[in-house]
Amino acid sequence: MAHKVSFDLEKIKAKKGFICDMDGVIYHGNMLLPGVKEFVEWLTKENKRFLFLTNSSERSPRELSRKLSRLGLDVSEDHFYTSAMATAAFLKSQKPDGSAYVIGEAGLINALYDEGFYMNDVNPDYVVVGETSSYNWEKIEKATLLVSRGAKLIGANPDLSGPTEDGIVPATGALISPIVQASGKRAYFVGKPNPLMMRHAIRLLQVSVEDAMIIGDRMDTDIIAGIESEIETTLVLSGVTDLETVKEFPYRPTYIMNGVCDFTADC
């Protein structure tokens, strides 16, 4: 049975640019969500500007493009922007040619390399944490010691969890927590809801804030990012948030949909 949702489809469709989250909006892990293919076809047919903006730092735009290709979607690399790219760009602006000790996957490491950073596990400028499947005690211990000695602690995103086809799993916010607790140092998170990422997305889309729409499944990242950036928001219930969860927050999205399937048909 469909949820009781509230949206004005014509007003949403009138937007010129769409900033879409991926996990929980486009797919769960390796499972494409209902209506996504039709949604992407609609974006292309209507000549909408769109950007898939993900807090996941594991994959590069090329890998994300190929992942969608395997799932049956043809989306070029220039339609993706990740928290890894945002993190690398931020660190370059702070300390060009700096160094980092990284707990994360290739998408994060390569983004840092692309911005001129080098890897350093002795005396790095930064300890950078993103999603990873190779998280272990040795890396936690190393990161804690480096941060205690002066390295600045950076999180690619603040997400505590994320959806997969098997259920909810820990994300960067959870993985970085032991380092924060043990070192007594605060982490700075670059991904959503940090306005840095949203401003870059708007620049890439080349649309005004008034002509843009954020579509996401998280109240604590996607929706608050839109509110703080003065961009209208659409919450989809196909990820980690349900209607009961929405009530727990002191702010609300502009619209609520079951999923992007509501763009072209009933979910």
Annotation keywords:
alpha/beta; Rossmann fold; 267 residues; six-stranded parallel β-sheet; 36% helix; 10 helices
Summarize the structure.
By secondary structure, the chain is α/β, with parallel strands linked by helices.
Structure description:
There is one protein chain. The protein is α/β, with parallel strands linked by helices and 267 residues long. The protein has two domains: 9-55 and 192-263, Rossmann fold; 95-189, HAD superfamily/HAD-like (Rossmann fold), CATH 3.40.50.1000. Helices cover 36% and strands 21% of the residues. It is built from ten helices and 15 strands. It has helices at 9-13, 36-45, 61-70, 83-94, 106-114, 137-148, 172-183, 195-205, 219-228, 243-246, and strands at 17-20, 27-28, 31-32, 49-54, 80-82, 99-103, 118-119, 126-129, 152-155, 161-164, 167-170, 188-189, 212-216, 232-236, 255-257. Strands 5-4-1-13-14-15 form a six-stranded parallel β-sheet. The longest helix has 12 residues, at 83-94. The radius of gyration is 18 Å and the shape is globular. The termini are close together.
